[in-house]
Amino acid sequence: MNPFAFSSATMLLWGLAAVAPILIHLWNRRRYRETDWAAMKFLLAAMKKNRRRIQVEQLLLLLVRCAILLFFAIAMADISCTGGSGINGFGGPGSATHTVLVIDQSYSMDYGEDGQTRLDQAKDLARRIVNEAGEGDGFTLMTMGRTAKGIISEPAFDPNDVLRELDQIEIDPGVAVLDLSLAEIEGTLRMATRDFPRLRRAQVCILTDYGDVTWKEAASQTNEQLLAKIEELAIVRTFDVGQPQTTNSAIIDATQLTPYLTPDESARFRVELSCDNASQLPSQVVQMFVDGRLVSQKVVPFVDNQIVSVEMNTVFSLPGTHAVEFRLENDLLDTDNRRYLAVEVKPQLRILCLADDVPSLKFLKLALDPSGAIQSPIKVETMRASAMMDVDLLAYDAVYLSNVARIAPDEAAVLRAFVERGGGLVMFLGDRVHAASYNAALARGNDASAPIIDIKLDGPTPRGEYFLDPRQYESPLLEPFRGQQAGGLLTTPIWNYFKVTTGENSAAQTALWFGSGDPAIVTSRYQTLSTDKENAVATRLGGNVLVFCLPASTDSVDRSLDPPAAWTVFPTWPSFPPLVQESLSLAVASQFDRRNRELGDVFEGVIEGDPGANLIELILPDDQTSRIEAVARDDRLFWAFAGTDQIGIYRSKILSNEATAKVEFAVNADTRESDLSRVPMDNVPPSLQPGDRGLDPTTSGQVASVPSSIELFRYALVLVMGLMFFESFLAYRFGAAAR
User: Higher pLDDT residue, 618 or 695?
Assistant: First the structure.
């Protein structure tokens, strides 16, 4: 049974107390004995003359006192009546309205004209909705951003509390997800219907700019189903705070073009920019800052709704991690006028080459570091594959395996830990490779990880005449050969290669083919499969893995022939060094994007140099700090941070000494929100379109009200107060007359 209905019915039963004065009157009439005595005759004679007047006075007092009790019971029962529908709330509450305020906080709402952003306008409208609500109405407040977040999850009945929370809403530098918001709205309405039966009426007020990025899927099947469920519970109103014409310039992307950075070497960056109204903003100056110091600037001419690319260069004199920032002049949307990069400048790039036969690595070592100088930016170390367990792979940027026969399970675990933490792995397959060993150790991951190589090794091909097929030169690995057909790639002599196959759902991509259609080079990005949000380490991308289906030496031979013949002369051909250099660039590229994250991503860092320091202080872009405890793994201290909700540079500082803050990683906004295009209203369901369901034009901008109700308890209380004053007045008046 509804407890509110029970209590209301109980209050109405107390209305029977209104007959109490009548019963008392009747009872008292029978409690005396009639006795005649001489003096009473004169008194009775006088009373007969005023009998009718006294009876009327006493009856009036009796009725007033009964009415006081009756209307007090009605007031306590809290009866409401909705206009045109009879008594709707008899036996229970039902007069108040539940309003769900939904504020779009995606960063396109930061666009502002005349000193007021779209978010400011949305807040003003929301304040009016709250201020014009009736007494007893309840409010829930939620934001529509990367996640649907309930600011006030349960109905609040104090308007001041709602207004305070409303003032605290800020821009979320991400893209609003409509389906998540609709699902949260439905859940909120159902919760209020179940737990707050007093709120019999409900309305949903969505305040948004109708950006195409968020609203283009409004008419999808999922969203229409959610909307239908919402409309069963509430009236839906939308408020449009966008502008039909905008002018906004934005930095869409910034990329490090130099594969790896070393001191005193030129570092190249590409910056991509756009403007949606070049006639109003034909050009802008883009500036480049390194560690807060201006190092370069260029004038960028804009073309309407087209991406313009510019290259900017600098030289880093010191090794370490550095903060790089690209800036545009402020415009009407400042969020997308900044782009941040965290780059790492290394004294030398350390490469480890492993093979069963170390002398066979001479071609690979020469291709990786043609100079061989001591001061070369690349340091190549070679050793036998059997020593893999004796070295710390995490000290290297990339590991090359050349014609290694077998991979033991413990070796596979070491390689997995290496690529899981961003290391690049490159494998060359030759005549020594045992396919079954590779398939068992590398192609199969456990429940929390993907395969290191998401392919199946089949074995060497029969002797024949084969050639390489770049197809459309689409892979970045083939960039040196694009437009250079005489570069030796197409003429590489091949008589045997290692055949591999990729499954239908494989994450591996083929970068180069053989003329037979088989893959010649396969690339993939290691990633874990766990969806456990509590495990920060198990929810991120790892390093890049490349597989060459050709050997890196001329020692691989076809022993079915007498005498044995070489598989290929690829390691001596002009195409070999460029492909190896490009493989190195791709192998270490994952280290760059691991330091450059998106909102909500997890970053994992490592404490270097002080094994006793297990606590660090992370300095956020707004200079707030967060302390993180490191965890020991693989003879190192690792820490993870998932609170990447701000754009900018994140720095760390070890608390155990006087170390200075170190740049760790950068977080940037999702630039899809820089496109301020409005969704065509034909793509929006009618109930989600702005119109007269929002502001009522007949009431000078006031919010259109939901169906009105008559709250009888209020009138009953007023009558009780009036009757009490009236009863006191009558009692005094009649008593004075009697005297």
Answer: 618
